[in-house]
Amino acid sequence: MEMLTIGAFARASRLSPKALRLYDELELLRPARVDPDTGYRYYAVGQLERARLVAWLRRLGMPLAGIREVCALPPQEAAAEIRAYWARVEAATAVRRDLAAFLVDHLSAPSGKPREDTAMLELRYSARTDTGHVRPANQDTVYAGRRLLAVADGFGPAGGPASGAAVAALKSLESEDLSAGGVLNLLEDAVQGASRVIGDLGEDVGTTLTALLWTGSRLALVHIGDSRAYLLRDGELFRITHDHSVVQSLIDEGRLTPAEAAGHPQRTLLLKALTGDPSTAPDLRLHDVRPGDRYLLCSDGLSRVVPDDGIRRLLAAVPDPDRAVHALVDAANAAGGPDNVSCVVADLIEAGARSLV
Known about the structure:
With 357 residues, the chain is an alpha+beta fold.
């Protein structure tokens, strides 16, 4: 067996001798032979392929624990794992991109001056929640006010109090002097306070939370779990939240199609929710608006039984927010009503104008 010194192997594999020593200690890339007297490491030429794979994955930014898993897999499964890792990186990058765009815009604007195109806009809204046809009680909490729109879907023995605590924590922000620059910090603090309350309710208790807070120029979004926020703009429906669920992660990683997800046995399992764990962070971002935008916040009691195209048709066909929320809840119940269903519909209109879609 042809052997290479650690220096020659490092040059051939594009890994430094220091990195090779670390990978030896971590049992990720062990040398083929170690001299018993000098401790000098020697590597087989046949190890170069694995070493180059390790080097490529490190350049990709993959953590060492992930590299160990990939290197232990057959080629096809390793390729799938790399694809899944990169999907997660792109999702995280998209969040940072949105934040960077906001910071550039925020810092470029004249200090203290509202955005001229949104300063005279206001929300017209309505909210409705319903137990559905199967659940014995309603653990959802829904709220719509002059500045705050929120839906929370509780679970566990005290799911109702949990969802109520999440929404209550945000209501105090309606009276705050908000600016686009500081609202995300206020939302994060409020959610952390809610999480502490939920942690005192007992084990296996938690809630989703999806909320929009109007600053006077933008909508600030806070989201955790699988409740959703949608935007209807110019007749097109856009989902502006990302489910923190097992099936959504499988879709993101290319392991499941949206059609397969609809009937997946783990479709209700969440990866993130408010459960009292202080390390669980919600999604937070600012959303640019236009006059005429219509927003829908809903629990999964709607989105799991009414497809997005059906939601779009109802939102586009019913101009009045109050009639729209009733139509959406009725549609969920007509589809079996297997879960509590909650909806908020809000239109962003010029101050003093009538609500139109």
